[in-house]
Amino acid sequence: MLKGLMMDTPLAISALIKHADRHHGDAQIVSRRVEGDIHRCTYRDLHRRARQMANALGTLGVQTSERVATLAWNGYRHMELYFAVSGSGAVLHTINPRLHPEQIAWIVNHAEDKVLCFDITFLPIIEAIAAHCGTVKTWVAMIDKDRMPPSKVSLTCYEDLINANSDRYEWPEFDENLASSLCYTSGTTGNPKGVLYSHRSTLLHTYAAALPDALNMSARDAILPVVPMFHVNAWGLPYVAAMTGAKVVFPGAALDGKSLHDLFEAERVTVSAGVPTVWQGLLTYMEANHLKFSTMNRTVIGGSACPPAMLRLFQEKYGVNVLHAWGMTEMSPLGTACTLKNKHLDLSPEQRLAVQYKQGRVIFGVDMKIVGDDGGDLPWDGKAFGDLLVRGPWVLRKYFKEENVDPLRDGWFPTGDVSTIDPDGYMQITDRSKDVIKSGGEWISSIDIENVAVSHPAVAMAACISARHPKWDERPLLVVVRKPNAQVTKEELLKHYEGKIAKWQIPDDVVFVDSIPLGATGKMLKNRLREQFKDYRLPSA
C-alpha cells in the first residue's frame, strides 16, 4: 500500500488564532461590555491576551484535558478564552447561564470544572452555586480591576491574571483528537448530557461552515453573532471568523431590538445569526419605528424552524437574505444549510421561497437519511417522512462520561427529528418526534400549524400542542401570544387557516396567553405547555 508523502500537521484550534493574527492582525473585534462601554481590539491584540491567559491557566494549575468553564455573554474576553483554554490543551466548557442554578451546579460538578470564568452579571449565580461546586478551585470575574464587586465568594480578577503573565507562549502540539471543548445539551430528558468536541472535529466543522454553500463567511464580512457563545460555541462563528479574518461585533447582554439595530448600523454589520425568537423582537422594533438596514445583507436562522412569514419579511421588506440552517449540539452544530442550486435561479420568487422554507441540504462532511418505524430507509421524494439520522466527523459518537452507552443506531445518530428529504437532497423538519400530533392515525405537523398562525399580522408567537380527544386520540390546540396592541379572535384566527392546510389539520381550539415559556436557547418549551394544558377540554370533545 503506497502512502502519500505529505506533512502530517495536526489540526489544532490554536492554528486559527495564529492565522488570524498573522494574516488579518488589524481586523477589528468590537464588544459591547457589561461595563457599559464599547471595547475595540484586533486579532493581534486578542492573540496576545490569549497567550497571556494560557500562561495564567498554567499558574492556576490547569493541566491538559482539565475543564475550564465560562458563564459569559458574547465578548472579546470570552473569545480569548476560546483560544487560551483549548489552545493550551485544556477543555473549554461553556455553560448556559439561563439554566436554573441547581442545574448549573450539577453540570459544573459533572464536568469537574477546575476554573470558572464569569461575567459579573452572573455573580448571583456564582454566589448561589459556589458552595456546591467542590471541584472549582478558582472563580474568575471577567471585569476591570476597578469594578470588582464585593462578594462572599473569593474572586480572582480576569484582568489581574492577564497583566500578571507574559505574552511569550508557544502553543503546544498534540494529537488532533484531543478534547477541545464541552457543551451540555438541554434537548434530552433527565439531566443534561455532555458533548465533547475534539480539535479535529472543530477544525473540520470550521472549514465546512465557512464554505459558500454553508455560512458563506469571508474577510469582507462584519459578523454579529446574536446566537450566544454558550450555545454550541455560537454555532462555530468565533472559529469561522478567525479562519476568514472577518470583523466580529459582539452584542454582550443587550439583545433587545433597539440595542441590536443600533449596533448593526454603527458597526456596518453585514451578516448575523440567531434563533427566531430574537429576530422577532428585532423585527417588531424595526416595524414600529420604520427602520431599515444599511449594510446587513444576510442572516442565519436556526435553533428552531424559521416561520415563513419571518423569512419573507426579512427578504421582501428589508432586503436581508435568510439562510435557513439546521443542526444540533451533538453535531457541533451545523448539519444543513438552505442555499439554492443553479437550477433554482430561474424559478419564480414564490418557487424559490418554497425551497428556502426547508432546512436545506447537507454540508459536505455530514450524511443523513430518514427511516421508517421498521428502521428501513425511506425514499427521498419530499413526501415520505420518518426519523432523521446523521453521521459525520463532527457528529457525536458517545456522550461524555457515558462511554458504556451507545446512542447510535447502526453507526448513525438519531436526531429526534421527523423530516422529509426531496429528490434534490433538501431536508425539511416536519416535527420533533415528541411534538408530532397523531390524530385518528394520521400525523399532523405542529410546525405547519405554527407557521400559519404567525403569518397572521396580529400574532407574535404561537405554539401548537396536542390535546386529548375521545374519538381522535389527539387533536391540535393552538396557544397564541398577540402582538402589542393587536387584536384577533379565535374565530378570525381559525378562518385564517382556510385554504392553507387540510381542513382536518386545522386546530380544534385557540388559547390566548400573555407569554409562551422559552428555554435557555430561545426555543419554546412545549413540554411545559403540555403540562399546563394536560387537562384542557376541547370544544369538539
The total of helices stands at 16
> What is the gyration radius calculated from CA atoms?
24 Å
Please list the strands of the largest sheet in the order they lie side by side.
2-1-11-10-12-13-14-15-16
Structural class of the secondary structure composition? alpha/beta
Mean pLDDT: 94
Percent helix, as a range, is 25-40%
CATH 2nd-level architecture of one domain: 3-Layer(aba) Sandwich
Q: Report the uncertain regions.
A: none
Kindly identify the CATH topology of one domain: Rossmann fold
Task: Characterize the biggest β-sheet.
Answer: 9 strands, mixed
N→C terminal distance: 70 Å
How would you characterize this protein structure?
- The protein is an alpha/beta fold and 541 residues long.
- Among the domains are: 14-199 and 232-244, Rossmann fold (3-Layer(aba) Sandwich), CATH 3.40.50.12780; 366-432, Luciferase, domain 3 (Roll); 437-532, 2-Layer Sandwich (GMP Synthetase, Chain A, domain 3), CATH 3.30.300.30.
- The strands form five sheets. A nine-stranded mixed beta sheet has the order 2-1-11-10-12-13-14-15-16, with helices on both faces. Strands 7-6-5-3-4-8-9 form a seven-stranded mixed beta sheet, with helices on both faces.
- The longest helix has 17 residues, at 43-59.
- The chain is globular.
- It starts with 13 loop residues before the first helix and ends in a 9-residue tail after the last helix.
